[in-house]
Specification:
single chain, 250 residues, mainly beta, Immunoglobulin-like, 2 domains, six-stranded mixed β-sheet, 1 helix, 49% strand, globular
Amino acid sequence: MAKLSADEKKLEPGKVVQAWGYNKQVPGPTIRVDVGDKVAIVVHNELPEYTALHPHGFIVPNAMDGVPDITQPAIKPGESFTYTFTVREPMVGMYHSHFDAQVQVPNGLLGAFYAGHMPLPAGTPSPVVDAPMVLNDAGVIGFSLNGKSFPATEPFVAKVGDWIKVDYMNEGVQIHPMHLHGMPQLVIAKDGHPLATPQLEDTVTVAPGERVSVLIHATEAGTWAWHCHILNHAEREDGMFGMVTALVVK
């Protein structure tokens, strides 16, 4: 059982903003379950307005889809709602608010939600890093990766020869072409579904609501820039900001 408290939180990616988050985190806690698990997610609303939670990408009973005015009444401030369902298939998914979403989601009410283990291409060793990279571009958290704006973003670290797996999750309102310097990205899945033919890409385009899974073979030593290639999402007159991080290969 997961318990999520929708609440207000101060976030500091170079400046202090008043974000909204689950359990005082932006993104919210990463949820990991197995196929066949019976899931219960208790959402307690400590916000000043109604809210709801949608398990994005998952097949769930209609009453558990988390869409006010269609599948349930919104959760009032001070009240709780429990979402229950059985996980039916492996998934790289997300969870986020579906009430006043253009405000609540870009303000921080979002998180990564994994079910089971997605198969890797044949012959690929287990990655040393297996993590989400949540993309945002609006609200109080603005241009950010995993809820932080450069230089507060956390770099990914590997050794020469390692493989890493990253799941891009676009919770923003714009498309983001994600570019890693120095090494190509092997796109292995879209929206949690493995591709029959993985393909190498220099810049991986991720649409709003989409999840794109990539493998990177860390063959080149150094600190490599990793950023959205819409340039005003990553650079300005005083240097890099926003949707920028790094891959450090030792």
